[in-house]
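User: As part of a screening pipeline, I want to sanity-check one entry by hand. Below is the sequence and the SMILES for zinc ion. Please return the complex as structure tokens so I can compare it with the automated output.
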Amino acid sequence: MTTPTHIGDGLLARLPALVPALASAHRVAIVTDANLERHGHLEAACRGFAHRPTCMVLPPGESTKTRDTWARVTDTLLHAGFGRDSALVALGGGMIGDLTGFVAATFQRGIPFVQVPTTLLAMVDAAHGGKTGVDTTHGKNLVGAFHEPAAVIVDLDTWATLPDAERRAGMAEVIKHGVVADADYFARVAEMLPPSRTPFALDAVVRGSIHIKSTIVAQDAREAGVRKVLNFGHTIGHAIEQRAAYQLAHGDCVAIGMVVETRIAVALGLCAPDVLPTLVDTITRAWLPTRVPATIETAAIVAATATDKKARAGRVEYALPRAIGAMAGAERQYGIPVDDDIVRAAIDASR
Ligand SMILES: NC(=O)c1ccc[n+]([C@@H]2O[C@H](COP(=O)([O-])OP(=O)(O)OC[C@H]3O[C@@H](n4cnc5c(N)ncnc54)[C@H](O)[C@@H]3O)[C@@H](O)[C@H]2O)c1
Ligand SMILES: [Zn+2]
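Assistant: Here is the complex for your manual check:
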């Protein structure tokens, strides 16, 4: 079953009208962060409810996505007498979506929640597919659950207040969607860049990317096969992110990761060499980086890939492109084991 998804302007004020689970819930709580409140989006979301929902405003930033916050939000709900007949609204970026989804997954063994993504990354990626969770000191997203939202509501009006850095970060995932699944979409996105352009065809980007992600997730919800293609750029990307102590933006790391991993695919003879300049050009026009930072050693990145979730029995597995719009390795569930020396050479060539 596909999750009901609504995309358009002014949808925040229509939340209960759009989502039956919210209209029928006895109690509703909106979880958000201080930036959304500051920009008036929380107020807009409350407007559609006959009775004002309970609102929880958390500090912005990844450091809020913890078990402590999960406990605090859960305790607030219990204290306020929320029961099984309640529903949650996650109003914000991926941090709020992941955290609120995990509270919803576990509160009284699971209550409905609605994703209302307000960053480009969350609109096109994090809000879809049912992955929820929190970070621990051992790494990101290590505690969580699959919990499909009752609906995803994308209010395009929230884009107006989104800082350029966040627009850029989301474009890395949009470009990824084009590479893994759809050459026409990739070309259309490339024409729209940079993401500061007015008018930027946000509606087309959100619809195109959601279509690609949800089609892939519908085939493989638990990431046993084809969903792995969505990891393109992320094995190297996560390793760089970790070695940079999370001081670099996820989108920047994924952009560099896509370049390095495409180099790996070319070195293995899986991918035509001309894919690389096309990808580098598009990433650059999205204001994203394409070079591995000089401060991070190659050996450190390679070592970090081995601790990635995708490492299996010695050799790390990668999702690698065959062309723009198609991934290699269908016959092995899209996980291609690669020797460390090939990875090292691809990193060195990307400096
Ligand atoms: N569940 C999944 O499948 C999945 C997929 C990808 C990423 N994620 C997770 O998503 C998180 C990253 O998401 P993110 O990049 O959206 O980060 P985020 O939620 O931290 O948002 C980034 C910043 O933008 C601000 N913001 C959000 N919407 C705004 C708006 N409309 N106007 C002005 N400011 C706004 C936030 O306050 C925050 O400061 C990570 O925790 C990552 O693990 C999850
Ligand atoms: Zn990502």
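Points to compare against the pipeline: The longest strand covers residues 139-146. The chain is about 45% helix and 15% strand.
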